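Feature request, filed as a ticket because there's no other form

It would be nice if the structure record came with a short human-readable summary line next to the C-alpha coordinates. Right now we just get the raw output. Example of a typical job, pasted below so the devs can see what we mean:
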Amino acid sequence: MREVWTFAEEREGVIRETSLELLSCGREIAEKLNCDLATVLLTGNGKEYEKLISRGSDKVYLAEDSCLKLYQSDIYADIVANLAVRYKPEVFLFSHMGVGADLAASVAARLKTGLSSHVFKLDVDKKGLRCYVPGFGGNVFVIRSQTKPQMATIMRGSYKKAKKIDGREGEIIPVEFGAYKVVKSRIFERSETLKVVKEKESEPLESSDVVVGVGLGACEEEIFKLAEELATLLGASMGGSRPAVDEGFIEERFLIGQSGKIISPKIHIALGISGSTQYMMGVQNSEFILAINKDRDAQIFKFCDIGIVGDLIDVLPRLIDEICEG
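Raw output as currently delivered:
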Protein backbone atom coordinates (compact mmCIF):
# COMPACT_ATOMS: atom_id res chain seq x y z
CA MET A 1 0.00 0.00 0.00
CA ARG A 2 1.31 3.44 -0.92
CA GLU A 3 1.83 5.85 1.96
CA VAL A 4 1.67 9.53 2.81
CA TRP A 5 4.08 10.42 5.63
CA THR A 6 4.16 13.13 8.27
CA PHE A 7 7.00 13.88 10.66
CA ALA A 8 6.02 14.20 14.33
CA GLU A 9 7.95 16.68 16.47
CA GLU A 10 8.35 16.27 20.21
CA ARG A 11 9.24 18.82 22.87
CA GLU A 12 10.19 17.45 26.29
CA GLY A 13 8.60 14.10 25.42
CA VAL A 14 5.27 15.58 24.28
CA ILE A 15 3.99 15.64 20.69
CA ARG A 16 3.75 19.25 19.49
CA GLU A 17 0.41 20.63 18.31
CA THR A 18 1.83 21.34 14.86
CA SER A 19 2.26 17.59 14.40
CA LEU A 20 -1.45 17.10 15.10
CA GLU A 21 -2.22 19.70 12.44
CA LEU A 22 -0.04 17.73 10.02
CA LEU A 23 -2.09 14.60 10.72
CA SER A 24 -5.25 16.44 9.66
CA CYS A 25 -3.53 17.64 6.49
CA GLY A 26 -1.95 14.25 5.83
CA ARG A 27 -5.23 12.38 6.26
CA GLU A 28 -6.91 14.65 3.71
CA ILE A 29 -4.16 14.05 1.15
CA ALA A 30 -3.91 10.30 1.90
CA GLU A 31 -7.62 9.83 1.21
CA LYS A 32 -7.41 11.73 -2.07
CA LEU A 33 -4.43 9.61 -3.17
CA ASN A 34 -5.91 6.36 -1.78
CA CYS A 35 -2.89 5.88 0.49
CA ASP A 36 -2.26 4.90 4.10
CA LEU A 37 -1.19 7.67 6.47
CA ALA A 38 2.05 7.01 8.35
CA THR A 39 4.02 9.10 10.83
CA VAL A 40 7.74 9.11 11.59
CA LEU A 41 8.58 9.64 15.26
CA LEU A 42 12.12 9.96 16.62
CA THR A 43 12.04 10.00 20.40
CA GLY A 44 13.92 9.41 23.61
CA ASN A 45 11.04 7.64 25.37
CA GLY A 46 8.53 6.24 22.85
CA LYS A 47 5.46 6.98 24.98
CA GLU A 48 3.59 9.30 22.63
CA TYR A 49 3.01 7.10 19.59
CA GLU A 50 -0.50 6.15 20.73
CA LYS A 51 -1.54 9.80 20.43
CA LEU A 52 -0.55 9.74 16.75
CA ILE A 53 -2.62 6.64 16.05
CA SER A 54 -5.66 7.96 17.90
CA ARG A 55 -5.45 11.15 15.79
CA GLY A 56 -5.45 9.37 12.44
CA SER A 57 -2.11 7.75 11.69
CA ASP A 58 -2.36 4.20 10.34
CA LYS A 59 1.31 3.43 11.04
CA VAL A 60 4.06 4.91 13.19
CA TYR A 61 7.72 4.38 12.28
CA LEU A 62 9.25 4.56 15.76
CA ALA A 63 12.95 5.23 16.38
CA GLU A 64 13.74 5.28 20.10
CA ASP A 65 17.09 6.07 21.70
CA SER A 66 18.34 8.39 24.43
CA CYS A 67 20.29 10.46 21.90
CA LEU A 68 17.03 11.32 20.12
CA LYS A 69 15.55 13.09 23.12
CA LEU A 70 16.75 16.42 21.72
CA TYR A 71 16.90 17.32 18.05
CA GLN A 72 20.27 16.56 16.39
CA SER A 73 20.17 17.66 12.75
CA ASP A 74 22.61 15.19 11.18
CA ILE A 75 21.48 12.03 12.92
CA TYR A 76 17.80 12.87 12.53
CA ALA A 77 18.30 13.54 8.81
CA ASP A 78 20.23 10.28 8.31
CA ILE A 79 17.55 8.18 10.01
CA VAL A 80 14.61 9.83 8.26
CA ALA A 81 16.23 9.84 4.81
CA ASN A 82 17.17 6.16 5.08
CA LEU A 83 13.61 5.32 6.10
CA ALA A 84 12.28 7.16 3.06
CA VAL A 85 14.69 5.31 0.76
CA ARG A 86 13.54 1.99 2.19
CA TYR A 87 9.77 2.53 2.28
CA LYS A 88 9.34 5.09 -0.55
CA PRO A 89 6.46 7.33 0.58
CA GLU A 90 4.51 9.21 -2.09
CA VAL A 91 4.32 12.41 -0.02
CA PHE A 92 6.30 13.55 3.04
CA LEU A 93 5.04 16.49 5.13
CA PHE A 94 6.81 18.51 7.83
CA SER A 95 5.72 21.50 9.90
CA HIS A 96 7.23 24.84 8.91
CA MET A 97 8.72 25.40 12.37
CA GLY A 98 12.35 25.41 13.48
CA VAL A 99 12.91 21.65 13.56
CA GLY A 100 10.59 20.77 10.68
CA ALA A 101 11.99 23.37 8.28
CA ASP A 102 15.59 22.42 9.06
CA LEU A 103 15.04 18.67 8.90
CA ALA A 104 12.92 18.76 5.72
CA ALA A 105 15.65 20.63 3.84
CA SER A 106 18.34 18.19 5.00
CA VAL A 107 16.23 15.14 4.12
CA ALA A 108 15.28 16.53 0.70
CA ALA A 109 18.96 17.15 -0.08
CA ARG A 110 19.85 13.58 0.87
CA LEU A 111 16.99 12.18 -1.23
CA LYS A 112 17.72 14.55 -4.14
CA THR A 113 14.06 15.50 -4.29
CA GLY A 114 12.16 18.78 -4.40
CA LEU A 115 10.81 20.60 -1.35
CA SER A 116 7.97 23.14 -1.30
CA SER A 117 8.42 25.43 1.69
CA HIS A 118 6.06 27.76 3.58
CA VAL A 119 2.95 26.00 2.22
CA PHE A 120 -0.47 27.12 3.53
CA LYS A 121 -2.68 24.80 1.43
CA LEU A 122 -2.33 21.39 -0.25
CA ASP A 123 -4.40 19.81 -2.98
CA VAL A 124 -4.15 16.87 -5.34
CA ASP A 125 -4.73 16.44 -9.06
CA LYS A 126 -3.90 13.69 -11.58
CA LYS A 127 -0.19 14.54 -11.45
CA GLY A 128 0.06 14.52 -7.67
CA LEU A 129 0.52 17.11 -4.96
CA ARG A 130 -0.18 20.80 -5.53
CA CYS A 131 1.39 23.18 -2.99
CA TYR A 132 0.07 26.71 -2.47
CA VAL A 133 2.78 29.12 -1.34
CA PRO A 134 2.42 32.85 -0.55
CA GLY A 135 4.13 35.31 -2.88
CA PHE A 136 4.73 39.04 -2.94
CA GLY A 137 1.88 41.51 -3.31
CA GLY A 138 -0.82 39.04 -2.34
CA ASN A 139 0.07 36.61 -5.12
CA VAL A 140 -0.04 32.84 -4.63
CA PHE A 141 2.32 30.37 -6.28
CA VAL A 142 1.14 26.83 -7.00
CA ILE A 143 4.09 24.45 -6.97
CA ARG A 144 4.43 20.78 -7.86
CA SER A 145 7.57 18.73 -7.33
CA GLN A 146 8.49 16.48 -10.25
CA THR A 147 10.36 14.01 -8.03
CA LYS A 148 9.33 11.53 -5.33
CA PRO A 149 8.67 11.76 -2.54
CA GLN A 150 6.85 15.05 -2.97
CA MET A 151 7.87 17.02 0.11
CA ALA A 152 6.45 20.14 1.75
CA THR A 153 6.65 22.14 4.96
CA ILE A 154 3.23 23.35 6.18
CA MET A 155 2.73 26.67 7.96
CA ARG A 156 1.41 26.39 11.47
CA GLY A 157 -2.30 27.11 11.73
CA SER A 158 -3.08 26.21 8.12
CA TYR A 159 -5.03 23.11 9.22
CA LYS A 160 -7.07 22.23 12.28
CA LYS A 161 -5.64 19.70 14.73
CA ALA A 162 -6.75 16.14 14.00
CA LYS A 163 -9.49 15.00 16.36
CA LYS A 164 -8.97 12.10 18.73
CA ILE A 165 -10.78 8.85 17.93
CA ASP A 166 -11.02 6.57 20.97
CA GLY A 167 -10.20 2.94 20.34
CA ARG A 168 -8.51 3.57 17.01
CA GLU A 169 -5.82 0.99 16.18
CA GLY A 170 -2.67 1.21 14.12
CA GLU A 171 0.65 -0.46 13.42
CA ILE A 172 3.93 0.33 15.19
CA ILE A 173 7.05 -0.31 13.09
CA PRO A 174 10.23 -0.19 15.22
CA VAL A 175 13.24 1.37 13.51
CA GLU A 176 16.43 -0.57 14.19
CA PHE A 177 18.83 1.94 15.69
CA GLY A 178 22.00 -0.15 15.71
CA ALA A 179 23.12 1.04 12.29
CA TYR A 180 23.25 4.63 13.57
CA LYS A 181 25.53 4.05 16.56
CA VAL A 182 28.60 4.94 14.49
CA VAL A 183 26.87 8.02 13.11
CA LYS A 184 25.86 8.95 16.63
CA SER A 185 29.41 8.83 17.99
CA ARG A 186 30.77 10.73 14.97
CA ILE A 187 28.23 13.52 15.30
CA PHE A 188 28.68 13.99 19.03
CA GLU A 189 32.43 14.44 18.50
CA ARG A 190 31.50 17.68 16.68
CA SER A 191 28.51 19.00 18.59
CA GLU A 192 25.70 17.97 20.89
CA THR A 193 22.43 19.64 21.83
CA LEU A 194 22.45 19.97 25.61
CA LYS A 195 19.09 21.58 26.25
CA VAL A 196 16.36 23.73 24.72
CA VAL A 197 15.83 27.12 26.34
CA LYS A 198 12.22 28.23 26.12
CA GLU A 199 11.45 31.81 25.16
CA LYS A 200 9.09 33.46 27.60
CA GLU A 201 6.11 34.85 25.70
CA SER A 202 2.35 34.89 25.64
CA GLU A 203 0.31 32.02 24.22
CA PRO A 204 1.16 31.53 20.53
CA LEU A 205 -1.30 33.16 18.15
CA GLU A 206 -1.79 29.91 16.29
CA SER A 207 -3.16 28.08 19.33
CA SER A 208 -5.28 30.91 20.77
CA ASP A 209 -9.07 30.57 20.84
CA VAL A 210 -9.55 34.34 20.66
CA VAL A 211 -7.29 36.72 18.72
CA VAL A 212 -7.55 40.49 18.49
CA GLY A 213 -6.05 41.75 15.25
CA VAL A 214 -4.90 45.37 14.99
CA GLY A 215 -4.72 47.27 11.70
CA LEU A 216 -3.64 50.74 10.66
CA GLY A 217 -6.99 52.13 11.80
CA ALA A 218 -6.12 51.18 15.40
CA CYS A 219 -2.60 52.62 15.36
CA GLU A 220 -3.24 55.49 17.75
CA GLU A 221 -2.13 55.35 21.39
CA GLU A 222 -5.59 55.78 22.89
CA ILE A 223 -7.23 53.28 20.54
CA PHE A 224 -4.44 50.74 20.98
CA LYS A 225 -4.79 50.88 24.77
CA LEU A 226 -8.49 50.12 24.36
CA ALA A 227 -7.59 47.17 22.09
CA GLU A 228 -5.22 45.85 24.76
CA GLU A 229 -7.94 46.25 27.38
CA LEU A 230 -10.37 44.30 25.21
CA ALA A 231 -7.81 41.53 24.65
CA THR A 232 -7.09 41.27 28.39
CA LEU A 233 -10.79 41.16 29.19
CA LEU A 234 -11.35 38.30 26.72
CA GLY A 235 -8.15 36.43 27.55
CA ALA A 236 -7.17 36.95 23.91
CA SER A 237 -3.83 37.07 22.13
CA MET A 238 -2.94 40.10 20.04
CA GLY A 239 -1.50 40.30 16.55
CA GLY A 240 -1.76 42.66 13.65
CA SER A 241 -1.42 43.52 10.01
CA ARG A 242 1.74 44.67 8.23
CA PRO A 243 0.90 48.40 8.65
CA ALA A 244 0.51 47.88 12.43
CA VAL A 245 3.92 46.21 12.51
CA ASP A 246 5.49 48.97 10.40
CA GLU A 247 4.02 51.60 12.72
CA GLY A 248 5.63 49.87 15.72
CA PHE A 249 2.43 48.90 17.54
CA ILE A 250 2.78 45.15 16.91
CA GLU A 251 6.02 43.13 17.04
CA GLU A 252 7.12 41.40 13.84
CA ARG A 253 6.70 37.97 15.43
CA PHE A 254 2.96 38.68 15.89
CA LEU A 255 2.36 39.62 12.27
CA ILE A 256 -0.78 37.94 10.92
CA GLY A 257 -1.17 37.16 7.25
CA GLN A 258 0.37 35.62 4.21
CA SER A 259 3.94 36.48 5.23
CA GLY A 260 3.31 36.01 8.96
CA LYS A 261 1.12 33.80 11.14
CA ILE A 262 -1.75 31.66 9.88
CA ILE A 263 -4.36 31.49 12.64
CA SER A 264 -7.60 29.57 13.19
CA PRO A 265 -9.20 30.88 16.38
CA LYS A 266 -12.79 30.41 17.45
CA ILE A 267 -13.18 34.21 17.45
CA HIS A 268 -11.14 36.79 15.57
CA ILE A 269 -11.77 40.48 16.27
CA ALA A 270 -10.39 42.70 13.50
CA LEU A 271 -9.88 46.30 14.60
CA GLY A 272 -9.24 48.91 11.94
CA ILE A 273 -8.16 46.29 9.41
CA SER A 274 -8.94 46.90 5.75
CA GLY A 275 -9.17 43.23 4.76
CA SER A 276 -6.36 42.96 2.23
CA THR A 277 -5.70 39.60 0.56
CA GLN A 278 -2.43 39.25 2.47
CA TYR A 279 -4.18 39.59 5.82
CA MET A 280 -7.29 37.57 5.03
CA MET A 281 -5.21 34.57 3.97
CA GLY A 282 -3.92 34.49 7.54
CA VAL A 283 -7.36 34.49 9.18
CA GLN A 284 -9.53 32.60 6.69
CA ASN A 285 -9.71 29.55 8.99
CA SER A 286 -11.26 31.57 11.83
CA GLU A 287 -14.62 30.17 12.97
CA PHE A 288 -16.08 33.63 13.58
CA ILE A 289 -14.87 37.10 12.58
CA LEU A 290 -16.04 40.38 14.09
CA ALA A 291 -14.78 43.44 12.20
CA ILE A 292 -14.89 47.09 13.27
CA ASN A 293 -13.91 49.75 10.76
CA LYS A 294 -15.07 53.31 10.08
CA ASP A 295 -14.81 52.75 6.32
CA ARG A 296 -18.07 51.10 5.28
CA ASP A 297 -16.45 50.06 1.97
CA ALA A 298 -13.57 48.19 3.64
CA GLN A 299 -12.93 44.73 2.14
CA ILE A 300 -13.05 43.14 5.59
CA PHE A 301 -16.85 43.46 5.61
CA LYS A 302 -17.06 40.98 2.72
CA PHE A 303 -15.48 38.26 4.85
CA CYS A 304 -16.67 38.86 8.41
CA ASP A 305 -19.62 37.30 10.22
CA ILE A 306 -20.52 40.55 11.97
CA GLY A 307 -19.36 43.98 10.85
CA ILE A 308 -19.63 47.25 12.75
CA VAL A 309 -19.17 50.52 10.87
CA GLY A 310 -17.86 53.08 13.32
CA ASP A 311 -14.86 54.84 14.81
CA LEU A 312 -12.92 52.59 17.17
CA ILE A 313 -12.57 55.36 19.74
CA ASP A 314 -16.38 55.32 20.06
CA VAL A 315 -17.13 51.63 19.53
CA LEU A 316 -14.48 49.97 21.71
CA PRO A 317 -15.48 51.59 25.04
CA ARG A 318 -19.10 50.56 24.46
CA LEU A 319 -18.05 47.02 23.53
CA ILE A 320 -15.87 46.75 26.64
CA ASP A 321 -18.70 48.02 28.86
CA GLU A 322 -21.15 45.51 27.34
CA ILE A 323 -18.75 42.62 27.99
CA CYS A 324 -18.14 43.74 31.57
CA GLU A 325 -21.85 44.05 32.27
CA GLY A 326 -22.62 40.72 30.59
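Something like this underneath would help us a lot:
The mean pLDDT is 88.
Residues 205-325 form a domain with the Rossmann fold fold (CATH 3.40.50.1220).
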